[in-house]
């Protein structure tokens, strides 16, 4: 290949990487491609990847391979007739909003099921951005959380991102069973969080696991995910934080944001199953876990028994 052609291919790969994983997402993109970060960095700066890598880039981002190689947009052909405007409109919708592909697919499948129609059903192909903005719901505040958070020291944010990405990618392509709208309320009064979450409407998405696997839930919010890519969610069990946070609400926390004095946080204590959501105040010797609901009493525990405490960034009411 001539240098100027190679350079344009590399520029398109950089563009796709930024769209897929962000400006600092080289390692994440390399992981999705199944290659080492150093190999990917070499391709991005020095030479065009082999065809196997180019095909993988096309697959995970949903772009046309011809566009990736040449920059030419493939001409889209639609069946003629009364349905043509609808198909063109649907194509524009999914091209500009790839995150809508899964809900649209679920809706199409529901219509087909109602009509008893299966023959010729085509899967809608989305630009797989590893489920952009999908934040895993790891458990309930009174029922424990998945194993890699069940330890005295949480993983570093970079390690947490990798583990969460693996959890999300495990469920990529599985059927969306339901999608429920929710509203975000900011709990941590950090300016970056208050200003950064422009869209206060989110979705709680249930994804069907494989046979013998449980249903998995994700909160879909690109704004929160961009600010805190290592964030995860927990569902509140009980009304001790009512009326601020109610039973069944979902809280978002991040390993990179520890609990602030006098603010709402999620705490894990030694010798206890699960975690608890409370206002957290600490002294030199003790930790005070304070409910908002006056029907509950403040719990005081030795500071040495506090394994970790993370700030509640925001919560979602469904």
Rg from alpha-carbon coordinates: 23 Å
Global structural class: alpha+beta
- Unreliable parts: 119-130, 143-148
Average pLDDT number: 79
Query: How many individual helices?
Result: 10
Highest CATH level, the class of the largest domain? Mainly Beta
Largest sheet: 7 strands, mixed, barrel
The shape is globular
Strand arrangement in the largest pleated sheet: 1-4-3-2-11-6-5
Number of domains: 3
Q: What is the CATH architecture descriptor of the largest domain? A: Ribbon
Give the beta-strand count. Answer: 11
**How far apart lie the N and C ends?**
54 Å
CATH topology description of the largest domain: Umud Fragment, subunit A
- Beta-strand percent range: 15-25%
Helicity range: 25-40%
**By CATH's scheme, which homologous superfamily of the largest domain applies?**
Umud Fragment, subunit A
Sequence of secondary-structure elements = HHHHHHHEHEHEEHEEEEEEE
